[in-house]
Amino acid sequence: MSKKWVSILLLQLCFFSYGSCGTVLVWPMDFSHWINLKTILEKLTEKGHGVTVLVPNVRYIIDSADSSGLNFEVFSVPFGKEEADEFLRNVLFKMIYELPNLSYWEAAWGFYETIVYFSKNVKLTCEAVVFNQTLIQKLRKAGYDVLVSDSGLPCGDLIAEMLQIPLVHSLRFTMGNVYEKYCGALPCPLSYVPVTLSQLTDKMTFMERVKNSLMSFLFDFCWYSFDKNWEQLYSEALGRPTTLCETMGKAEMWLIRTYWDFEFPRPYLPNFEFVGGLHCKPAKPLPEEMEKFVQSSGDHGIVVFSLGSMVKNLTDEKSNVIAAALAQIPQKVLWRYKGKKPATLGPNTKTYDWIPQNDLLGHPKTKAFITHGGTNGIYEAIYHGIPMVGVPMFADQPDNIAHMKAKGAAVEVNFNKMTTADLLNALKTVINDPSYKENAMRLSRIHHDQPVKPLDRAVFWIEFVMRHKGAKHLRPAAHDLTWYQYHSLDVIGFLLACVATVVFIVAKSCLFCCRKFGKTGKKQKRA
Amino acid sequence: MSKKWVSILLLQLCFFSYGSCGTVLVWPMDFSHWINLKTILEKLTEKGHGVTVLVPNVRYIIDSADSSGLNFEVFSVPFGKEEADEFLRNVLFKMIYELPNLSYWEAAWGFYETIVYFSKNVKLTCEAVVFNQTLIQKLRKAGYDVLVSDSGLPCGDLIAEMLQIPLVHSLRFTMGNVYEKYCGALPCPLSYVPVTLSQLTDKMTFMERVKNSLMSFLFDFCWYSFDKNWEQLYSEALGRPTTLCETMGKAEMWLIRTYWDFEFPRPYLPNFEFVGGLHCKPAKPLPEEMEKFVQSSGDHGIVVFSLGSMVKNLTDEKSNVIAAALAQIPQKVLWRYKGKKPATLGPNTKTYDWIPQNDLLGHPKTKAFITHGGTNGIYEAIYHGIPMVGVPMFADQPDNIAHMKAKGAAVEVNFNKMTTADLLNALKTVINDPSYKENAMRLSRIHHDQPVKPLDRAVFWIEFVMRHKGAKHLRPAAHDLTWYQYHSLDVIGFLLACVATVVFIVAKSCLFCCRKFGKTGKKQKRA
Question: How far is B494 from chain A (nearest CA, A)?
């Protein structure tokens, strides 16, 4: 059956099952973000909705020729692939090798600078859409029902506002949760909600709470500066003064890519839905060759090792340190590594250009997962209940691993400073200390025991927004308040003024009475 | 098949479907609260769980001889039915006829006093359980998996703590949300979250926000006094110093009897689940005689009228005012009323001792619902999309109607001051102005369009707590903080002290330099 007929059949099915099918416009992000978002989009397509993804001609893992039934609207950006490669290499080098050698505060600031640097290309990409009148007209004419935006970086919200269609964010986090907090009205009490990227947990000492507050101030400042950075573009595109925050805040739903297996319990709002791990699925059988290697591990089992889709090579020194540690464990190791084979590589370790990570993590022989700490990988480990050795490098990775450490399911190793012994000890700990497996299994049970699966919840709310042309009944009235009204500062000021007035009047009256009676007393005495 | 065999069959089914079945102990409340809670308990029984309800020998609508498969553990209280009747009459009279004639603040305080008065009997009931060693031993021996407590009034939490079993609250609200806020750590920003019973909405003027804050202070004071009132009993029963708040705060889940169709969007926590309207179901056919009367209304349709399960009689004057208004509308009216037939009763109005309220509200001929504003009735109206005329009398009824008014689905009439014209106008408005029907239908669509039905969510979380012996992963760390830590007052103090120290040192240094250079300058000048 041709693709066209499959689409028509699905559309009919959709009408039959849901009453009506919609059209979804998508503003994606590349790399691991795409893996997550694509799962939602494929499910939407499966349910008969028409999904169109806006993609630049220069991109990485977003494949516009795939057979998933998604439509791609490709637009041109004013930079080439080589330029983008160079740009990305600079960003990665800075984040992996430079920032970790700085002090904590310098690193946090450095990360912000990197994001601003990175957002230069995002801005060019954004301009290539919003100032392309032909494209905007085409999109407007298509009459989409909703725009789903991967809002780790801006622009999706702006396009939704230009097209006057409801917006749904799909988001892991923004730096320090500032956009969720200031634009989404999400309450973030600093006493028990650790600021994202702070590597703190919900149980903080006094000094940690001080650090959390200072981090929050730092990110607030970054946010102010980042928002200003985009203000002109947003205002120009909409033809009226506006801000990035104002536009992002118009979202109907915020689909957050975590859940309470990963996140520390915190206050949230009815239009925030925590759908972490929606891309996870049961393991499929491994390729024959790989299965043979896995089975050869006997009772010792295997260790799965990946540093994610962005890091393909390591320095010779680093790869030798790692391989030497792996060579000393009785487990077989499957290592996703494209670089030169390290001299210290043991016979128990095999490197692969690519591994079926989810299938390996779901294999009964798997004992541990060495991970850079990306959210997708961590969620696959949680899904299958596998303890982790975290080797975080940049972005939210150190923070993610801090979460897993706090929940007792991971041990952390410092990527820049680690020795062979460090990695070996970490591996031995998570494999031999049963508490790590128990905690990973506990998280897995929490993940699997939800009233509705995360993917179904994400799809439900996107469909809800299409069906009802929004979700206004979930939007808190906090959006209509100024910051001083939100914190009731005007009310507190008024009440204090009232109390002060009463105290003043009472005091004056007392004084008046005292004087009067004093005088009368004196007069009487004189008399 | 005997009841015993049905139970065994269900237990087998439960094991087959869910892996294991549990035993649930229940601390209920009487009247409309029971209607709501019973729906959950029957569903739990249906799924094969053993449910035992702790009930006093003196009670009202809780029927221990019903055939729902629930077990009842009846205990004796130190007061008789007549005494309880008299007590209840006093409470109702005070709330319906006395409080509404007072000023707003006096009425709020009066309501608190009534609750304290009412809680005297609740305390006696509580003591009859917690100091009954034989009963407590029996309950302990039974090894229940969870205690589900209707926590509008205290004691369920205390019994759970004594038996050392996980606790789940089923709750409409506590006065001013103080228990949710102080014992459950629920954030309630006063700028857009109206205090319960305040009759305010989420969109407040400056003076309304002042009122909201003052109401919150008042309720905080009431709470402090109410908590103190129960402290001795709780401490004595547990054999250690404790408070009602501390014990209530140990709950694993808070099942709240509202949803975003009724509630204004507000921050909440992962262990709060909004399951409003769980008792609602599709309408069943009416009794033949009633259906005939309904059909005789033709295109005009019918109006359903009930003042709830607690109010059975009205004064002659009041019933005549009401009946005269009903007589003037073209609709047929079905009025649940046990009192003397009013002289002004029109031929279009029939009174009934009892009406199948849900079936009537779900009837296609129904145009409006005259209601006292109890949550159960309001939810049935929302479920079926019926606009309301609210005649609130006491407790949360005025606040409930304020919610429905704000959402454009109700008109309010003052029970104590209403004239025939007032009621007539209100009825004409909700029937003839299409916006009321549209808004009621919008709320109905919101209610029906949820990822999981409220009843299934309530049951899911009770089962979750049984399966996992709690839900600790949803419990915010706010519970471990003191009030000043929670509000970061210690951190703010510390940071202010740091800033002050830095300013002091810099100022002193500047002063020192000025003096030194000043002196040198002077010396040079002199030289």
Answer: 8
